[in-house]
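Action item from last week, closing it out:
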Amino acid sequence: MDLTASLEAPCAAERLFELVDDLSTYPQWNGLVHNATREPDSDSAWDVELRARVGPLARSKRLRMVRTRCDAPNLVRFERREHDGRQHADWVLEAQVDPRPADGDGDPGSRLVMRLHYGGTFGGMVLERLLGDAIERSRPALLDRVS
């Protein structure tokens, strides 16, 4: 499953990149990310807990995500990298931030494009809908953080 979402933000690309480059900020603006804690002695790995509710049921999933590429302030990529020696479904999150021309008042703008790839078979259309809904709800919260 692959999802892509975009957002136009009224801030400099560097400001927007600060938020998408650090997974520990995601719980502040993305309701699907319940918790994201940077691993001790690491600046590129996080323990992430995803949590979603489907009707009366709540499900959670823990992932170890590692920043595998960082071209600040424009591109960051996170990939699932577990330490338990078992095979796991791929999770890949990539965020591309590009500056936009200044508006009529001279204020900078930026555009965010996020791509999420999930290589597993769990959830199917239900998971795709949950992720899509979470993306829609996260847009205003992220805009609040950069404004």
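Closing note: The helical segments are 13-20, 26-29, 124-146.
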